[in-house]
Every structure is written in structure tokens, then in C-alpha cells.
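Summary for the steering committee. The consortium agreed at its last meeting that each partner would contribute one worked example illustrating the joint modelling workflow. Our contribution is presented below. We chose a case with several input lines so that the handling of multiple components could be demonstrated. No manual editing was applied between input and output; the record is shown as generated.
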Amino acid sequence: MNYWESLLLMRSELGLLAVILLLIIFEIFSNKKQKGSLVTVAIVLFAIHTVIGFLPLAEGKIFGDMFRTQPLLHFFKGTLNVGVLILLLQSSDWLKKEIVDQNKATEFFILLFSSLIGMYFMISSGNFLMFYIGLELATLPVTALVAYETYKRISAEAGVKFILSSALASGTALLGVSFLYATTGTIYFDAMAEVLTVSNLSVLGFIFFFSGLAFKISLAPFHFWTADVYEGAPISVASFLSVISKGAAVMILMIILFTAMRPLIEVWGKVIYMVAIATMFIGNLFALRQQNMKRFLAFSSVAQAGFILLGFLSDDQLGYTTIVYFVAVYIFSNLGAFGVVQAISSATGKENIDDYEGLYRTNPKLSLLMMLALFSLAGIPPLAGFFGKFFLYAAAASKGYYVLVFIAVVNATISLYYYLIVVRAIFLRKSDDAIPFFKSSVNMKLGLALAALGILIAGVYSPLYNYIFSISSSFLN
Amino acid sequence: MDILSLFVVVPIITVIVLGFAKDLKQSRIIALVGSLVQFAMSINLIFAYLKERSVNTDIMVFVKDLTWFETFNIHYTIGVDAISVVMIVLTAVIVLAGVFISWAVDDLPKEFFISLIILSTGVFGFFISIDLFTMFVFYEIAVIPMYLLIGIWGSGPREFSAMKLTLMLMGASAVLSVGIFGIYFNSNAGGGPLTFNILDIAQVDIPLAAQKLFYPLTFIGFAVLGALFPFHTWSPSGHASAPTAVSMLHAGVLMKLGGYGVFRVAMYLLPEGAIIWSDFFLILAAIGVVYGAMGAIMQKDLKYINAYASVSHLGLVLFALLMFNKTAWNGAIIQSLSHGLLTAMFFALIGMVYGRTHTRDISKLGGIMKILPFIGAVYVITGLAYLGLPGFSGFVAEMNIFVGAFQHEDTFHRILTIMAVSSIVVTAVYILRMVGKIMMGPLSNEEYKDLPKATWYEKTGLVLLMIPVVIIGVMPFGLGEMLKESIQPFLERLL
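What follows is the complete predicted structure of the assembly.
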């Protein structure tokens, strides 16, 4: 393989870099009036990047196994792209306002796309150094994004909270990695898997490493930043954190646990088991009493992360197919919910569940989408979320974890309660000062329609799952 | 398109077309056409089934199999035997009657009919499935529209009742899903692949330990929907708050999913577990029978009376299923049908009375028969059929159940049977008291003199339900003959 061919394996990363550069060039050569079209240009460029991303890519390793790509990883990057594309479409109104009114420029896109490149590198990494660089690149730009609405105190506060907790998390993860390096003498995943044994130091290394990533995925008891940051951050950034960033972190956690730390499976299996139970319960019980939609979705996403952990207990093809599938499905469901919140917030500025009372009678389409998204998150057939959850349960049950599955289904019922609270406000209640009818922009409609399409189709249409299963057969071998 | 898939496709098409409806008139016409087509299809299905049965001796006929999720060996497998055929006919009749009864729904009519038809899609799908996964999917599809149906169009504490009902039923289905996983991951005990197919699993002897563990989960998962004591509490409040057509569909059809699932999934697939746990659940079922009847006596609200009566009568279905003999099982199926039709009629009648007088309190009602002769007469007939008067379906069902139950000679079964039989007397008490109070006697309120007579659509709905009640009552042998062959596989598997 020559130099250029090997660089082609980094097609996604280079492509996204090109998008960033083109945006900067566009900004330089555009006058103030044309600035408003920056959003459209960015969306079009990113859409092209997304489509190209679905072209097949060969399997391979470069830079001495620091960077690797496989069909499943490539597919996962494509899924993240779709998520980001939907997110950009949904936030275009808000962005246009921000860019024109606040005289901002491409920094939103540069930061967002840099973070995405960081995630690409993180999930493609073959050793802990690359992993760490990717992790930092994925995290730091998001801090600026969280504090993007500089004129809002709460946004800045969220930014500070986020940078402090993620710096601590990264540091903890790095400490764990250095312990692991101390016991094995290598930072390569594959090499570590061969020499790692259960010892006090290696277990300690795992615990630190896991805690660091648990921050990113917001697993209990490392979830405390989630609700505050989501509430303070702009909605599009909150949804980026809850779907894209969480999805990528789940993916790399899975890769590292299933490769480098496979010898410790006895240890991490127990940890995952307990953390899954704690996360589901804590996320669900806190979500019960939320009033603000963003905080509500924050805790719901904590609970969803607990469900994802069920898939980790099946450390075979079934496990990783199901996890990747669930993350894909979850992206659509959560973006559907966040999209409606975004649409309502940008039209009226209202974000509380009480404000949604009587929404169906004024805005039936938005209400229907919200119901679909929430039912999908709750796992009601025939929506995509049901299939995602059912297969996660199946993955755990295939290894005999029936008690855990039982706890999970109990939690699914609890979660149904609070999703129904929102449905109740929208459909059952009547209100005199309901949110009046409003029209969304074309971009917003497209973003919402894509999410709805995903929710309706990704489950029932079985070839998607079968495709993920087929490309995951060569994964991690 | 095969004859069975149409039962799922037609409602889906109806829902899509309903999406374009503009007002009440258009919505109800579309819903009516859709449910009429289903009704015609279900009548056709009886004859098609009898014809097919004479040449085909498989357990299930009209079987069709499509692979869905290859990884898990999940198939869209459909097929019917006599039990599912009669349940499908029951559903079609009640859905059609429900559309007639809701002819004048005023608030959000389009959404009402859409939810109603989605519910029926789930029910039809459930009855034609022979794949556990598909069955489970349809089961949940049937339950979730109840939340909106009760919550939006209900009365009284509708938000509370809707939430309670949805959470209890979805909680039960969550428990059921664990049971299904237990069955699925043990379905390779015979050396074959893991499968969700009920007929294939029925060929396998699942290990005893697994049966002991997963039978109660599967049983309870279904039986909550069949109002098993002490998990029946969603039923009275849910029925009391639900609008008329929803109560009809829910008590008439949806609760039958419980008994059907218990029989076809829990007992059929986990026979040894069923035997081990039978005494325990039999006690619960018998308590339910008596408790429901006693509860009904104490109520003053017409809907609560009927809801508790449903707990009692459906308890009888579970009671009969747990008797493990042919006569009792036959009775259980006929009881499901009979109760479905009669309770739907009762709820329809209560809806008509309530819609006119705006009260369901029996102490405030009286002498309605004089003002509303048609409704009054049907009310009396329904009441008599409900308490088991010969000539109607209720008698046939209860006769079969108790003859079957008396075939057990040990003291334990005798005591429980006598307890259950005593509920019939109690039933007579509350039905006669209710009918006598509200229909006969002097008119309780002078304002009731001007109550409007029954409309054509109300009459059509009632007559539609009455016909099968009489047919079953007068000619039970045709039905018994039809069910006999389909009960045979259960006998072979369980005894």
C-alpha cells in the first residue's frame, strides 16, 4: 500500500477537514450580507460529506496500527454524520439568528466539525495515545460550543461546569491508561490484550479509565454535570452532547473493553452490571420530576445510557451489533425529541413541559413527532426504539443475565411514565394560552422529517440490523 | 396478499386514509368502511377456515412465513386455528359495533377513529401471530392507544385512569418479555436452532428449571391483561373513565388477549411449569371470580358494576383454563366470546343511558324502560344473558366450565369450584338489582321524560352484538365441534 492509498483510509477525516477549510475560505470572500447564507453552505457541504461517507471503504491500519478502519467503524462514522446533519438542519434557524444578530462567523461549524473529527479519530484509534488525542479533540471544542450564547449567564456557567468536569474526566482516564501501561508496557490495544492479567494495578487502571469515559457517557455516578450543562447549553449543543458525543464514547468504550481489556472481563462485567442498574434507576428517578424539557431529556439520556450497557455484557458479535444498532436508533429518537424542543424554543422561547399543554390542538404535526420520538425512546413498537431495546435485552439474556433484564424492563416501565407525562401535556390537556400555531422553516422541517423517517423505518426495516450484523462479523478479530 | 395478512393491512390502510379525513362525517364513513371490510373478511374467514380444515389437518392453517430478523431467527409467521378464528370474528364484530356506537363522537373525531383502528390492528395481529416476537409487538401496539383513548375522550379522573392502566399493562408486558426471552433462549433444548415460532417450540421440552422460573412470568405477563387478581386494579378505574366504544373494545376484545396468551403461550409452551404452578394461580383465579362478583354488588356506578363483573367473568376464563381438561377449556373459549359480546353490549347500553341522562349512578336512575323501550328491552336481555340464562351464550360457557371443573375429584378443586359456582348466584343478585332499579319502577326524574329514543346507529350496533350471543346460545354444538380439533394439540401437550 503506497502513501496515497493509505491516506485514503482517512477519507472521512480528510473530507471533514476539507469542509472546514472551504467554510473558512467562504467566510473570507463573503461580505456581511452573504454571511447569512453561511449556514446553508455549511449544511450543503456537510450533506455532501455525509453522502460520500457512505461509499464503501477498505479495511486497513495505518501509522503503525495507531489508526485503523473497518466497515463497522466506517458505518458508525456515517451514522454520526447523519445525526450531525439532522442536528444542523434543526438548528439552522437558531444559527442564522446567532450569526447575523451577534455578528458571529464560522466558529460554530469549525468547533462542531473539529469535535466530530476528534470522534472519528477516537473510534478509529488502535492505541491509547491516539485515543486520548481524539478524546481531547472531541471534548475541548464542545466546551466553547456550550458557552456559545455568550450573552447568557447560564450558558457561560454551563461552559465552566463542562470544562471542569471533562478535564477531570480526561485526566482520570489518562491516569487509568498510565496504570495499564505500567502493568503491560504497551499502549496498543491488541498487544495489551495479550499481556494484560488481573492484578491490583490493572484493575485500578481499568476503574480510573472507565470512570473517565463514564463521565463522557454520563453513567451514574458520573452524571451530575449532564442536566446542568444541557440546560445551560444551546439546544443544538445539548442534543450534540446527548446523541453524537455519547454515541462515540460508547463506541470507543466498547472497542477498548472488548479488545485491550478483554482479559479483565470478569472484573468489568461486574462493574458494568452494577453501573447499568445504578444508571437506569438514577436517570429514571431524576427524570420523573423535571419541568424543563432540556433537563428532562438530559436525565432520559442518562437512563438510556444505562440500557446501552446491557449490550456490553454480551461480548460477541451479537453484543457489538446490538450496541451500534441501538446507538443509531437512539440518535434518531433523541434528535426527534430535541428537534421539537428546538423548533418550539426558537419560535416561542418556551422550554417547560407545562408550556406544551394543548400543543396538539395548535401544532398537530410537531406533537405527533414528539409522541413518536418519546414512544421510540420508551421502546414502544413498531418504532425503532423498541427494536433497539428488545435486542439489547436479548443480548444480555443470551448470556443468562435474566435478573438484569428484569430490572431493565422495570426501568423501561418507569421511563414510560415520564414520557407519558409529556404526551399527557401535549395531547390530554387543554390550555387557553397554548403555544399558537407557527410555521417552521424548510430546513427545520427537513431535519424533523429525517428524524421521523428514522424512527419509523430503522426498526421495522430489518435489513438495517442485518447489514450491521454482517459487517460486524470481521470486527475486532 | 394472503387472507390473514389482510387483517393487518386493511386497518393500516384505514388509518392512512383516515389521516386525510377532514371532519366527523368523513372520519366515521372511512372508519365504517374499513371495519365493514374487516367484518366481511372475518365472516369469510370462518367459511374459508372450515373448508381448509376439512382437507388440512395441521395445527395451524393458512400458515405464511417470512423471515424478519435473521440474526434472532425472528419471523413474521402467521396462521390460525379455530380458537384464533373465533377471536378474530369477535374482534371484527366488536370493532364494527364500536364504530356505530361512536357515530357521534364530537371531540377530535379523526384521531379517535385512528386510535381505535390502531388498537384493532394490534388485536388482529396478535391473534394471527404464531411467532412470539411478532405476537409481542402486536400486543404492545394494542395496548398503547388506550392511553390516548381514555386520556383524551374519557370522563372522570381520565388522566389518572389512563396512566394507571397503561403503566400496569405495559409493566405486565415488560414482565412478559422476560418470560419470552426465557422461552426463546431455551428453545434449542431439542437440538434445533433458537426460535420464536410457537409451533416449533411446542415440539421441544424446555428444561424443567427454566419452566418453573419462566412460567409465572409469562403467565402473569398475560394474565394482568385478563384481570387476574390482584393485578386487576387497572380495570375498574380504566373502564369507568373510558369512552363507550373504548370500554367495549377493551373489555370485549383486549382483555381476551390475556386469556388467549395464557393458553397459547404460557401453558402450551411451558406445560410442566403450568402443572407445577397451577394450584397457586387457580387460587388467585378463584379469588378473582368471587372478589369481582362481590365488588360488583357494592358499586353504585353502572360502569364500575360492569368492570367488576368483567373481573369476575374473566377470572372464570383463567379458572377454566387452569382446570386442564377439554370441557373446561371449551368453556373458557366460549366464555371469552360470550363475555366479549355481552360486556360490549353492556358498555354500549350504559353509554347510551349515560349519554342521555348524564349520570351512571343507579340510585338516581329508574323507570328508563318506559321512556326508552328499545334500550330498556335490550338491557334486560343482556342482563339475563349475562347471568347465565339458558338460550344465551353465557349459559353454554358457564355450563362447560363447571362441568369441566367438577371432573376433578379432590377436595382442593372441589372447594374452589364451589366458591366459583357461588359467584353465579352473586351475579344474579347484582344484575337483577341493577336492571330492576334502573329499568323498572317509577321514573326517577321528571326531566327524563323527553329523552331521545335510540338512534339507528345505536340499534345497529346492539343488534350486531346480539345476533352471535343468540347463535352461540342456541347452537353451541357447531362452535364446540369447530373448537374440538384445535383443543386437541393442547390436550396432547399438557396431559
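The first helix of chain A runs from residue 3 to 8. Residues 235 and 337 of chain A are 11 Å apart (CA to CA).
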